[in-house]
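Sequence, structure tokens reproduced for absentees:
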Amino acid sequence: QVQLVESGGGLVQAGGSLTLSCAASGRTFSMYIMGWFRQAPGKEREFVAAITRSGGNTYYADSVKGRFTISRDNAKNTVNLQMNGLRPEDTAVYYCAADRYSGAAYSRSPHQYEYWGQGTQVTVSS
């Protein structure tokens, strides 16, 4: 089992940057595919980015490709989401998620992830 704690959210103007961090407990962090999802009010939770267990491959939603970067440090049990060029439509609660059992490289479905953080609010003003 793993516990996830996000940090780094806040209020930023359009065009600005934020870095979200997710700290994971446990000694098996490298066995988890890690993902970031977001949920805006009245909308379903949506995939943002994912990174494979080794960190060798990353995947992004089309809406954030070229602006966001996901990375992980297995020695420190952390996964980050660097967000540049933020837009008002990026406003949402951002969640870190961990997938232990998937046989695929990653998943865009939130149902595939077993563990979730509490979320951190990101607000982008126009």
Observations:
- The CA atoms of residues 57 and 108 lie 14 Å apart.
